[in-house]
Amino acid sequence: MLRRVSSGRQLPVDHRASLAAVKSALFAAFALDSFAAYDAFVTRRLQPGESADVYLADLRRLAELFGGVPDRTLSCAFVNGLPDAARQVIRAGSRAEALDLPSVVARARAVLSDDRVATVAAATAAPPRGGGGSRGGTQDAEAVMAARVPRRPRSRRCWACGRLGHLAAGCPQGNGTGSGAAVPDPPDRVTRRSVFAWCGRLVAHLPVCGWLRPAAAWVKRRANAVTRGWDDVTTDALLQSQISHVHSRLLAADPARGQWCWTGDQAIVWTDASSIAAGVVIETPCGGVMEDACWLRPGDAAATHINMAELDAAVRGLNLAVAWGVTNIDLRTDSATVHRWVDDALSGRARLRTRAAGEMLIRRRVDLIRQLANELELKVTVTLVRSEENLADALTRVPKEWLRDECEESRMSVMADDGAGDSAARGQTSHPLVQGWAEEKTCAEAVQGLES
Q: Residues in domain CCHC-type (predicted)?
């Protein structure tokens, strides 16, 4: 474009580096001349949907093209181009208060904003009963179309029912579990992927699940044990019976519930552990359960002493409470030994005394609890409760039938392996009766631990 100006107007070479010279040349080539600019200035009106500031800026631009005008003249031209109602209001105010140009523009903004709100309200109101049309219907329609109505934020859509205005966690029709919703049917084609997806719909994204949480974890562990790939189909009878048991119990009472909306600095942390799992329940001072969680103990941790598992549950419970922003914690456990260890560590009354094989591991866990309380400035009290009163007890148990069935299967597997082994292998290992007795004793202890 600069080349066109240079070639058409013969802009000198020394002027091409001057911004003022280039600007004047561009205006001379493309802008309106003074006569056309004046004609556009005197006929300029506020356009539908145009703001007062844009309108004033265009008047200034046109005025500069024919030499400029004083602010008083620009103010008169500005008021003259406004709609009739706004023009009358601003004229009356100028006579009474002798408004300058900035005040006139501010008054125009307010008047135009009120007019748009009134126009939109009148257009959205019900028509009069007489059936007669209003005067200036076309102008009113244009004003309504030009009015800028603030957009309301999009409503959130519930993925459970597909409706707007709420999330799946608070869906009045339920979200697949809890709140009276229909329990999802078990998978027809049992694979690891389908079992994990079904269990995820039962417990995922819900803070409170109760007995359902360890049961779903146990079912997934069984699915892992009987399949080698994610899409391998299995006909395992134990897995099928466990899925059927969970589904039938859910039809009777679904414990999944809750919303992630609690705030506060006080909470009660219930912790418990068994030979199967560790469980934690976070409860409000008012008695409502905020969240529960459980962790199945791995197979190689079966030999770990129960007091060690109880300490691990206490550490997990404190971490869960800290994640909620709680600073005043009442830690409740049904283990007298763990209660004494943690209480002595927090109060400093006595040193930890134990002759267990994992003494150093126990000391490390107790020190971790003390460090959490000191560094995060937590007020932690420890309370000893009875097992039947512990809310976390249900999170450490699964149906006894599942344990008996799996123990029986394990015992039969050991006997079959012993019968098929060669004499050299039997000579290097213990006696088959001793192995079978050890497996049966371990299963019996696990079942007895659940019944106690």
A: 156-173
